[in-house]
Structure to design on (942 residues):
C-alpha cells in the first residue's frame, strides 16, 4: 500500500480528455490573422557546388511576399553541439544531401509558395555522392566539410582499465561484428511551426513542434542576432518526437526569417517525405566487439569498435559517438573496456538522437555476444548476467554511479513470470525464447552547451482565493505524460489534490528547462517542481504559525486539509475572515469542518500577497576527468530486462513475435500507467527496428521509401501481447526516489529478439532488420555450411 | 472553379463551396475548423485522419471533398455529447491509451466503428480493426485494452 496521496498511483492523464475529443491543439491546428505560408527549396542532388542562385522569377510570381537565401540569412554556423556547429540556415557554396536547404519563400498560400520555390534557378557543379562510410573514407574522396580529413566528423578513443591485460585473464574470447540500418523516428506528427515577428516591438514568437523550446530559443537568438529576451518559443501539443525533434530544424529558423522580413506570421510544415529527408533519427552502426570471460563466466574485458554513418551534418552526432561506447560500462561489472568510435560524414540526411541514444545497437551486439559466451561455457544466459551484475552503489569503469539499480529484481521478475526455466532450450523446433538487459541515463548530467545553468526551473503560484495552484514549467509534454507527472509531484508535495492544479508548460516565458530528451524530465523537472511546491507550503504554514501561534513543524498539509499534529487550535477567527472575504459564495466552509488549504492560502495571501514558489534544479558534479567523461553521466540510471518468445517459419524466414515480457526499474513510479505506457511503446519501437525498419537509398542518394507504407513500423497486428512489470527501487538522487523509463526500456528488445531467434533455429544473425529474406538466407547459408 | 456540396457532419448540415482537388481532410481542418482529424502522411498510410463516412471508417486525406457530397460524416468532435465523453473516449482516458494523442481521433473512430457492429470484440478483432491506424507511442497494448473494456451495455 502506497504511503502517498497522489503519486505512486494510476492517474488518468491531465492532457488526455482534450486529446480524446480532438480539442488538443497541435501546431498544424493553429492559424493566425494575415498568416503567410512558407516553402523551402531543397537540393535535388546529393553533393555539389552551388555556382549561382537566381531568385528573380520566384519573386515575380503573384502572391509571393519574400524570398530568402544565404544572402539574407547570413552564415552564422549552428547545430546541436557547439563543438560541431557545421550547419548554416541555407547552403551558399555547397549542397551535401538531397534535401539540403537553399532558399525559402513566403507567399499568400502554400501552393504559391511551393510554385515560387520551384521557380528559383540554381546552377550546380555536381560532385561524386559519397553514400557509404567506405566511399567517404577512401583515399582522395572529396571532403564534405574541409576541416575534417577522411570525412571523420568525430572520433573517440577511450580505454578504461587495461583491455589487453583483461583479455589475458580470459579463458574464452569472442569477437563478433554487427550491423544495423538507418532508422526513422516515424512519429505521427510531421514537424511544423508558425513564426510571428512583431516589427514594432521586435519580439519574435515561434510556435513549434519541438521537444526543446529552450535550445531552439538559444539557436534562434544566435543565428538571427536577437537578444534572448526578445525570442519566445512555445510548444503546443506535440505528436511525439523520440529525439528527432530535440534539435533546431531549418524550417524553424527559416520561418522566423520570413516573418522578420514580412512582419507577418509565417506557417511552415514538413510533408512526410520531408520528415524523412530531414532525418536526424538513429544512425546506422557497425560494431565489432571482442569480449573476454573466465570459465566461471566472469567478464574480464571488452573492446568495442564502432563506425557510425552520420550523414551530411553533425546534429547530435558527437554525443552519439560517445554514447555508443560509454553505455556498455554497465549494468555488468566490467573492469576493462576499450572503445574506438568513428562518426563519418556521408551525403545523406544527418542522423541524430533517437530513443536509447547511441546505446541501442551497441547493446544489441553485446547482449547477443554474452549469450554466445554463456552457451560455450554451458551457463544459463540469465545466470551469466546475474553473476556479473552490478548492485546499487557500484561505479562503472567509466565512472557512472549506479546509485540505485534494481537489475537483479528485473531479471528475477521476467524469469519467473515467463517460465524461463521450463522453456529455455526446451521449446519445440522453430520456437525460441531469448533475454537481454540494459540501462539508461535519467537525464544528461550536463547541458548541451557548456554552462552552469539550472537544468530545470518551476514556478508555482496560488490564485488569490487559494482554490487553484498554477504550475508553470518550460518542460515539454511530448506525449510521454510529463505534465501529469509534474502535477502529481507538485500536488503530493504541497498536500492538495491533482485536480486543484492547473498545469502549463512548454513555453520559454515560463522559465528554463532543457526539455524532453535523455529521459530527463521526471528526475530533473520533477526536482524543480518539488522545490517550488515545498516553498509554497512553507510560506502558508509560516503565516498560519504566526496567526495561530503554533510552530510550523507541528502542522502539515494533506489532501487539502491543514493537519495539526498536536492539539487542535481555535482557528475560528481565520475562518471568519475567510467567509467575510467570500460573502455570498456557495462553497464557504461549515463551522465543524477542519481548516482547509484554501482558507489557509487566502489568509496567507492577505498577509503576503501572491504566494509563489520558485523551484530550480541542476545535478551535482558528475563523472570522471577524461575527455568525453560528461557523456553518459547522469544523477541516476534506470534499467530493464526483457524476455521475448517467437516463432520462426523455417520455410519462409518469417518471424512472428509471440509475446514479450519487460521489467523496468524506474525508481519510484510517479504515475504507474504512464510508466507502463513508456515500456510498451519502447518495446514496439525496438521490435520495429529489429524486424523491418530501414531507410533505403538509391544510387544517387535519394530515399526510396520516404513514406509510412514502405518504411514499415509496427501495426497493432505486428505487436504481441506485452507484459510490463514495474520494478521499484528508491533512487537517492530522484524526486521521491523516481528515475527514468522513457528510453531504457528499448535497450534489451533487439538483443532479446536475436537471442530468441537463435534459440528457435540455432543460427546467429548479425545484421538488422530481420526480414524474412535475411532470415531465409541465413538458414540457407547455414544448411550449405553444414551440408544438410 | 468551385463546386457546391452538401454534407452532414456530426448531425449538422453544411453547404460549402470547394475546389475540385480539395480533400475531405483539408475541408474539415482548414475550411470548417474541425482540426480533430490529423494530417500525418497525406497518403492514407497512417490513419490519423480517419473519420466515419456513412458508417465506415475512411482516411479523409484520400477522399475528395466533392465525393463526400451527400454523405454523413462523423468526426471526433461529434462523439462528445451533453452527458460528457463518449464511453470509448472515457475508456481511452482511463486506460492510459493516449500518449501524444496524434493518432487518437482516428484510433477512437476506428474503434467505435468496430464496437457499433461488434460490442464484444476479441483481441484479434480489435487489432485487425485498428491495423490501419499507426501509433508510435503506445505499442497498442492499452489501446486494445481500452476498446475491449468499454461497457457493451452503454
Amino acid at each position: 500500500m502506497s504511503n502517498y496521496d497522489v503519486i505512486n498511483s494510476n492517474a488518468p492523464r491531465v492532457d488526455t480528455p482534450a486529446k480524446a475529443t480532438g480539442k488538443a491543439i497541435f501546431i498544424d491546428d493553429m492559424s493566425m490573422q494575415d498568416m503567410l505560408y512558407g516553402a523551402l527549396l531543397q537540393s535535388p542532388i546529393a553533393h555539389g557546388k552551388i555556382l549561382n542562385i537566381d531568385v528573380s522569377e520566384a519573386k515575380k510570381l503573384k502572391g509571393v511576399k519574400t524570398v530568402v537565401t544565404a544572402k539574407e540569412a547570413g552564415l552564422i554556423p549552428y547545430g546541436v553541439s557547439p563543438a560541431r556547429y557545421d550547419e548554416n540556415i541555407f547552403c551558399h557554396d555547397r549542397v551535401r544531401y538531397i534535401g539540403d536547404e537553399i532558399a525559402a519563400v513566403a507567399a499568400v498560400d502554400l501552393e504559391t509558395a511551393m510554385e515560387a520555390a520551384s521557380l528559383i534557378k540554381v546552377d550546380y557543379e555536381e560532385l561524386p555522392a559519397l553514400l557509404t562510410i567506405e566511399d567517404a573514407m577512401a583515399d582522395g574522396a572529396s571532403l564534405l566539410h574541409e576541416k575534417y580529413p577522411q570525412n571523420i566528423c568525430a572520433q573517440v578513443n577511450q580505454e578504461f582499465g587495461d583491455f589487453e591485460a583483461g583479455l589475458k585473464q580470459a579463458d574464452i574470447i569472442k569477437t563478433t561484428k554487427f550491423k544495423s540500418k538507418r532508422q526513422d523516428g516515424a512519429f505521427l506528427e510531421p514537424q511544423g511551426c508558425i513564426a510571428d515577428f512583431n516589427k514594432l516591438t521586435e519580439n519574435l514568437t515561434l510556435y513549434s513542434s519541438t521537444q526543446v523550446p529552450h535550445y531552439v530559443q538559444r539557436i534562434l537568438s544566435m543565428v538571427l542576432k536577437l537578444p534572448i529576451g526578445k525570442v519566445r518559443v512555445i510548444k503546443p501539443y506535440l505528436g511525439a518526437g523520440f529525439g528527432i525533434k530535440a534539435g533546431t530544424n531549418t524550417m524553424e529558423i527559416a520561418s522566423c526569417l520570413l516573418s522578420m522580413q514580412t512582419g507577418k506570421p509565417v506557417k511552415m510544415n514538413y510533408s512526410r517525405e520531408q520528415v524523412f529527408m530531414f532525418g536526424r533519427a538513429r544512425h546506422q552502426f557497425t560494431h565489432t566487439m571482442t569480449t573476454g570471460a573466465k570459465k566461471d563466466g566472469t567478464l574480464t574485458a571488452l573492446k568495442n569498435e564502432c563506425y557510425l554513418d552520420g550523414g551530411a551534418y553533425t546534429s547530435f552526432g558527437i554525443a552519439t559517438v560517445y554514447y555508443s561506447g560509454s553505455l556498455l560500462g554497465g549494468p555488468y561489472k566490467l573492469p576493462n573496456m576499450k572503445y574506438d568510435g568513428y562518426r563519418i560524414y556521408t551525403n545523406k540526411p544527418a542522423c541524430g538522437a533517437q530513443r536509447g541514444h547511441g546505446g541501442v545497437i551497441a547493446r544489441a551486439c553485446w547482449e547477443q555476444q554474452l549469450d554466445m559466451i554463456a552457451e560455450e561455457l554451458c551457463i544459463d544466459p540469465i545466470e551469466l548476467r546475474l553473476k556479473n551484475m552490478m548492485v546499487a552503489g557500484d561505479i562503472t569503469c567509466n565512472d557512472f554511479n549506479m546509485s540505485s539499480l534494481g537489475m537483479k529484481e528485473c531479471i528475477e521478475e521476467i524469469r519467473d513470470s515467463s517460465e524461463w526455466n521450463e522453456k529455455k532450450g526446451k521449446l519445440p523446433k522453430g520456437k525460441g525464447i531469448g533475454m537481454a538487459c540494459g540501462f539508461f541515463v535519467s537525464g544528461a548530467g550536463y547541458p548541451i552547451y557548456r554552462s552552469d545553468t539550472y537544468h530545470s526551473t518551476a514556478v508555482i503560484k496560488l490564485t488569490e482565493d487559494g482554490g487553484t495552484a498554477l504550475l508553470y514549467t518550460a518542460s515539454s509534454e511530448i506525449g510521454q505524460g510529463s505534465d501529469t507527472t509534474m502535477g502529481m509531484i507538485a500536488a503530493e508535495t504541497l498536500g492538495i489534490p491533482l485536480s486543484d492544479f492547473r498545469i502549463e508548460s512548454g513555453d520559454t516565458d515560463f522559465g528554463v528547462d532543457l526539455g524532453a530528451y535523455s529521459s530527463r524530465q521526471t528526475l530533473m523537472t520533477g526536482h524543480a517542481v518539488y522545490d517550488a511546491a515545498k516553498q509554497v507550503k512553507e510560506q502558508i504554514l509560516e503565516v498560519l504559525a504566526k496567526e495561530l501561534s503554533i510552530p510550523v513543524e507541528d502542522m502539515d498539509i494533506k489532501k487539502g486539509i491543514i493537519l495539526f499534529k498536536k492539539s487542535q487550535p481555535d482557528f475560528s477567527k481565520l475562518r471568519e475572515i475567510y467567509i467575510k472575504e467570500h460573502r455570498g459564495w456557495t462553497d464557504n466552509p461549515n463551522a465543524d469542518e477542519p481548516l482547509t488549504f484554501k482558507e489557509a492560502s487566502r489568509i496567507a495571501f492577505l498577509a503576503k500577497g501572491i504566494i509563489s514558489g520558485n523551484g530550480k534544479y541542476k545535478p551535482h558534479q558528475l563523472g570522471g576527468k577524461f575527455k568525453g567523461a560528461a557523456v553518459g553521466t547522469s544523477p541516476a540510471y534506470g534499467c530493464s530486462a526483457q524476455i521475448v518468445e517467437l516463432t520462426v517459419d523455417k520455410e519462409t524466414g518469417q518471424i512472428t513475435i509471440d509475446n514479450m515480457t519487460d521489467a523496468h526499474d524506474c525508481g519510484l513510479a510517479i504515475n504507474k500507467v504512464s510508466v507502463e505506457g513508456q515500456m510498451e511503446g519502447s518495446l514496439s519501437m525496438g521490435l520495429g527496428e529489429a524486424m523491418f525498419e530501414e531507410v533505403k537509398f538509391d544510387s544517387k542518394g535519394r530515399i526510396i521509401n520516404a513514406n509510412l507504407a514502405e518504411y514499415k513500423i509496427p501495426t497493432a497486428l505486428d505487436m504481441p501481447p506485452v507484459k510490463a512489470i514495474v520494478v521499484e527501487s528508491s533512487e537517492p538522487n530522484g524526486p521521491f526516489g523516481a528515475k527514468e523509463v522513457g528510453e531504457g526500456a528499448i535497450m534489451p528488445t533487439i538483443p532479446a529478439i536475436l537471442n530468441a531467434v537463435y534459440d528457435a533455429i540455432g543460427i546467429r544473425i548479425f545484421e538488422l532488420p530481420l526480414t524474412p529474406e535475411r532470415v531465409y538466407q541465413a538458414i540457407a547459408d547455414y544448411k550449405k555450411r553444414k551440408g544438410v | 472553379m468551385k463546386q457546391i456540396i452538401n454534407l452532414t457532419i456530426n448531425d449538422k448540415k453544411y453547404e460549402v463551396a470547394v475546389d475540385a482537388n480539395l480533400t475531405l481532410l483539408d475541408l474539415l481542418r482548414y475550411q470548417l475548423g474541425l482540426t480533430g482529424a490529423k494530417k500525418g502522411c497525406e497518403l492514407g498510410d497512417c490513419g490519423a485522419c480517419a473519420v466515419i463516412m456513412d458508417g465506415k471508417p475512411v482516411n479523409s486525406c484520400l477522399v475528395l471533398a466533392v465525393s463526400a457530397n451527400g454523405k454523413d460524416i462523423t468526426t471526433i468532435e461529434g462523439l462528445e455529447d451533453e452527458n460528457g465523453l463518449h464511453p470509448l473516449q472515457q475508456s481511452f482516458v482511463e486506460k492510459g491509451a493516449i500518449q501524444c494523442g496524434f493518432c487518437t481521433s482516428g484510433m477512437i473512430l476506428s474503434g467505435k466503428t468496430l464496437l457499433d457492429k461488434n460490442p464484444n470484440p476479441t483481441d484479434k478483432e480489435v487489432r485487425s480493426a485498428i491495423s490501419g491506424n499507426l501509433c508510435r507511442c503506445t505499442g497498442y497494448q492499452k489501446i486494445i485494452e481500452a476498446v475491449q473494456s468499454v461497457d457493451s451495455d452503454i
In short: Chain A has three domains: 16-22+454-617, 31-127+189-239+245-278, 363-443+633-786. Chain A touches chain B through 57 residues (CB under 8 Å). The longest strand of chain A covers residues 299-311.
